[in-house]
Amino acid sequence: MLKHLVNLVKGEVTGKVESGFPERVLNLCAEYGITFWDLNWASPVEFTFTMTRRDWKRLRRLSRKIDCDMTAVGWKGTPFFLGRIRHRYGLWVTLAVCTALVFWGSFFIWDFEIEGNVTVSSQEILRALDKYGVGFGTYGFDVDSSELRNYILLEIPELSYIAVNVKGCRAYVQVRERILPPEIVSKREPGNTVAAKDALVTDIQPWDGQKMVLPGTTVEEGQLLISGVVQDNVTGVRYLRGMGKVYGRTWYHLQCRVPLTVQEKAYTGKEKKRYALLVGKNRWNLYFSSSFLGDTCDKIISWEKWELPGGVALPVTMAAETLRFYEIVERERSEEEALTLADTVLTARLDEYVEDGEVLSRELTSQVVDGNLVVTLVAECQEQIGRLVEIPKD
Q1: DSSP assignment letter at 378
Q2: Pairing of the two strands 12-18 and 69-76
Q3: Residue 113: enclosing H or E segment and its boundaries?
Q4: Burial, 196: exposed, middle or buried (Cβ in 10 Å; 0-12, 13-18, 19+)?
């Protein structure tokens, strides 16, 4: 394949040889190292073959010593293509203008590559850059990396580092997100640990302060568990932080309704494609239909950025929209399917309630009421129920 491409660049000539002794031409090629291919015999005194444009000219000079008639019957490759268009001055002017525009456009930013971000979205970073004045079509030499860094770090406090390197028409944005330090707990401010929810206390671990309940005690939400106000006969009243861990058993009674008749999409198989051209920040629709599609189709959009050979980005993006039409139909949902869906929803809700703990046991019950499957989840959990509250100062 590579050799074929090289020959096309050099130019290929298909020649026809007619002679009473055609083997003399082949002997000349062997003697002077002239390479040829695609040899086809039309008759004992006539054949065709292909070689490069340079070797064809060389063979014609050498064949003058022998009695033969050599005729070029085919031309292919870059030299012949350029020869055919050498008098088309309008084409050459257009090519020169396009080359100049591409060269000039390479000094502007037409593409961004962002790496290093996890929690901060790329759209948020691009909006901050655009707010500062670095966006699509910005002159690359006007980007001041040091000044830009200070602005973006103030705009997005979740970032600890950002660097913008412009290479050609592409801006490479490298960021590092800030690692937040752990919350500093002040032990000087007095406080109490109270129950965050109703529970049966199973273990209490006071770090600072005096415990006010014992394991096996049933407590209500807001009840004092570890007191930060301690009094003794030696020092009198002392105000402490009142921190600690309190574990207890909790019970949850969650319920949800799942309809047994559900409306779903049924795709008709009809699809429609339409395209739009995005040049910089401008959009040109390549279709004449209205952009309002109604509520009976899904729209899937894909973007393809145009690039020149060598990875040179262009400010042109082709947007392809695929429209898939559907109808709304009703379907009866089985009780098993509804129970599985309810189990997923109730489990997710239970996980939100139990942040620092585990589920010890769970039981699902269900019954059909008015066309709905009513599912009830009863769960017993072991979790940390202590919550620190500040003691108001007088």
Answers
A1: E
A2: antiparallel
A3: strand 111-115
A4: buried
Contact 356, 386 (CB under 8 A): no
CA atoms within 13 A on the CB side of 129: 28
> How open is the CA angle 159-127-314, to the nearest 5 degrees?
115
Listed in sequence order, the residues at least 6 apart from 172 whose beta carbon sits closer than 8 Å to its beta carbon are 113, 115, 164, 165, 166
Instruction: Specify the residue for token string 């199973």.
Output: 202
pLDDT at 293: 63
pLDDT (0 to 100) of residue 343 = 94
| Residue 3 token pair | 């050799």
State the residue for tokens 């206390």: 201
Residue with tokens 């010593």: 65
* Each residue's pLDDT tens digit, 130-147: 888 888 778 877 787 788
CA atoms lying within 13 Å on the CB side of residue 197: 16
Strands 199-206 and 244-259: antiparallel
Q: Is the pLDDT of residue 314 over 80?
A: no
Q: DSSP characters for 3-61?
A: HHHHHHHH-EEEEEEE-SSTHHHHHHHHHHT---EEEEEEETTEEEEEEEHHHHHHHHH
pLDDT digits (tens, 9 = 90+) for 262-304: 888 888 888 888 888 887 777 888 887 666 666 788 888 888 8
